Amino acid sequence: MAMFRPRFAAALALILAAPLVAQGYDDVDPFIGTGGEGHTFPGAVSPFGMVQLSPDTDTSCVIRECYDHAAGYRYEDPTIQGFSHTHFSGSGHSDLGDFLLMPVAGDAVPIEPGDAKKPGSGYRSRFSHDTEIAQPGYYAVTLSDPGVRAEMTAGTRIGVHRYSFPKGKAAHLVLDLRSSLYNYPGKILWSSLRLHPDGTITGSRETRGWAPARKLFFAMRFSAPLKDHAFISTEKDVAYKGFRAPGHGTENVAERSGRALVGRFDFGKLDEPLEVKVALSSVDEAGAIANLESEAGGFDAVRANARAAWEKALSAVEIEAPAPMRKNLYTALYHTLLAPSVAGDADGRYRGPDNAVHRADGFTFRSTFSLWDTFRAEHPLLTLIQPEKTNSDFVRSLIASRKASPHGILPVWQFQGQETWTMIGYHAVPVIAEAYLKGIGGFDANEALEAMVASATYAPYGGLGDYMKLGYVAIDREPEAASKTVEYAYDDWTIARMAEAMGRKDIAAAFSKRAGNWRNSFDAKTGFLRARKSDGGFRVPFDPTAINYGSDYTEGNAWQYSWFVPHDQAALFDVMGGDAAVVKKLDEMFEFDMSGIDYSHAEDIAGLIGQYIHGNEPSHHVAYLYNYAGAPWRTQERLKQIVDSQYKPTPDGLSGNDDLGQMSAWLMFTALGFYPVTPGSLEYVIGRPFVERATLNLPNGKRFTIAANVGEDRPYVGRVLLNGRPLTRSYLRHEEIMAGGELRFEMQAQPNRTWAVAQADRPYSMSRR
Predict the structure, then answer these.
(1) pTM score, two decimals?
(2) Nearest Cα to 512, choosing from 161, 228, 766?
(3) How far apart are alpha carbons 44 and 26 in whole angstroms?
(4) Domains of the chain (ranges plus CATH)?
(5) Which of 458, 487, 576, 723 has the fewest other C-beta atoms within 10 Å?
(6) Where's the Glycosyl hydrolase family 92 N-terminal domain (predicted)?
(7) Separation in Å, CA 91 to CA 12, 34, 339, 470, 502
C-alpha cells in the first residue's frame, strides 16, 4: 500500500524557521462573517488556493432555504456534518461543498448524516465553539459524539486532514459524494469511486447546480493502511437502514459509479493520528494524482508552508490601529486574498467554459470571478498588493476563458472554469482595463482589447442588442434594464480609456459615445434613473423604493442605482440640479425614513442606513460622492457612520455577503483613507482614515505610508499632506502611491469646509477632464 508518511523533521525545521511574531497573521479571525449575512467560511485555505477545506454544518436545505448556508458553515449551528473541500467566501449564491469527509469512531458506521436534532442518528456530530481554532491555513475542532479531534490545513491544490481518534476505538472515515451545497434532487448527475492497488483512492462527480455539468475529480491517500472499505450506492437501496458494518457483502469492490455513492474506509484501532491528503482537479483523476504528488509532506509540513504563504501575503500591508480595528482589517485583507482561486492543475491543464481541457502556457489558470462585485474595489486592491497575479494569472485567465467560450465573450460570474451567467454587465472589462492602464503587463493588449469589444457587442447578451440600437436596454424586452444601461455605459468608458491609451482612436471614439448612454435612462423630472420601454417611454407606475428581483433594477432600486455614473459624476450632478441639490439628495438617501418598508423578500438587501444599503455593492461608492459635490466633510461623516455600524470583529461582523472579498476590500481602502470610486481613472477618492498608521509594501520595493492622528474626538480631515506638501485636492493618483512616500492626515474636531471644494480639486469626471 502506498501511503504518505508525515515528514516531521522537515516540518519542525519549517516551523522553527518561521518568525515568532508575524505581521497580521495573529490578527486574522476567519470566524468574522460566518454568522449574520457574511457567508464566509472558517476552514483552511492557502492564498488563492484551489482547495478550501472547511466544515459544513448543514447541507440538507434546498435552494432558497440554503441562503444562510451559502458557505457551508453557519456559526449558529450546533452540529458539523463533515468537512468538504470547496467553498465560496461570502457569495450570495452557492454551489460546491465537494467530497465531504467525516470521521466515525467505534463499531457501527452510519452512512447517512442523520438529523441535527437527534444526536447519534447519523455521522454528523455536535461540537462546541470552545474547541474550535481558526487561523489562516488551519482549522481545528473537537467532534463531541465520536470524540475525535479534527484538524485541517491546505496547500495550493491539496487539503490535509488529521484526525485523532479515541484510544481503543476503531477508526473509520465516511466519504459522502451525495453531499453538496445548495443541494436538490437530481443535482448529482454522476459520481465514481476507485481503489488503486497502491491504496490511493480516486473519484469524481458531475453536478448540475449553479454551473451546469461541472466536473471535479479527487485523489486521496492515508497515513495508515486500509483494513477494509466499502463503496456503497444508496440510489435504490433501502435495505441498509443507514448503517454499514465493516466487511459488508459485495460493496468491498475496487470501483463503483452511480448517482448516490458513499465510501467507507476502515483502519482499525490506531496508535497515532490519521492523516488524509486530498488533491483536486477539474481535468481528470490523473491530474488529481499529479496534484497530490506536487506538494510534498504531511500535515505539519503543509501547515507550515500555508502559514509562511499567509505571512508573506499579509505582510503587503502593515497596520497600526486599536486591536478591534486591526482584527477587522487583517481579516478583511485575508478575505481579499482567497479568490480568484487556482483552477488549473500543476501541469497547466484546466477545464474551460466549453467543458474541454486546455493547457495554460506560462500562467496558472484561475477562476472564481465574481466580477459584478469585485471590479469595484477587490480587483483595484489586488493591483496594489498582488499585481504579479493580476497580470500573469487573472487577466490571462479571463482572456483564455474568452477563447474557450462558446459565445466568444469574457466571463460574467465564473467558477472552476464554468460560466453561471449570474449578475449583469461585462465587468471583466474594467478589470483588464485597470491592469493595462496601471502598467501591469504580461498579457497581449491587442488580444485583450479584442475580447473586451467582443463582450460589449454580443447582441444576445442581456439586452445589448437594444442597447446598441436604442442607447438603452428596453425594459419590455429585458429585465433589470435600468441597471444594465448604466453598468454597460461605465464598462464602455473603460474600453474607451484603454483603447485611447493604445492609440485605437476609432474604438475610443465609439465607446466614449456609448459611455454617455446613462443619460438615456435618467429621468430629470423625478431625479431618478428609470427603466424605459422600447417605444421610448418610462415604465409606470414608478416607486423609487421598490425592490424586486427581475424588476427595473438589479438587487437594488432607484435610490441606489441613480448614483451609478462613476465615470461622469459631474455630468450626473448637473442633471440633478447642481451641488446643493446633490448634497441634499444624498442626505435624504442616508436619512430616509424606512418605517413601513419591508425588504425581507430580497435576500441581498442588508446593512441599511436609510436607503443606503452597504450590504450590497450598488451603494459602495455613494458615501464618497459628496467629494464630487464640493462637500468632502460630509463624506467623512458618512464613512464613520458606515464603518461604525457595518463592521465589527465578531462572527456577525459583516453586514452583508463579503462577495469574494468586495465588502472586505471596501473596508481596507476606506481605513487607509481613500477608495477607487472609478476603476480605470487611475485615481482614488480621499475619504478619511481609520488607522493610526499603515504602510503598503509595494511589489516594486517602494513603501507608501498613511499616517493620521485619528481619534473619536477628531472625526474630520483638517489637512492632507503628500510627502510633506499640502494636498488641496480630494483624490490621490495611482502613480503617487506606486512612487512611495507618505500621505499624512491631520484630523480635527470640526469639519474643514474649505478643503478640496473647488471644481479643479474634485475627482475625475469624464466631462470635466
Answers:
(1) 0.95
(2) 766
(3) 15
(4) 8-310 (2.70.98.10)
(5) 723
(6) 28-281
(7) 37, 12, 11, 34, 35
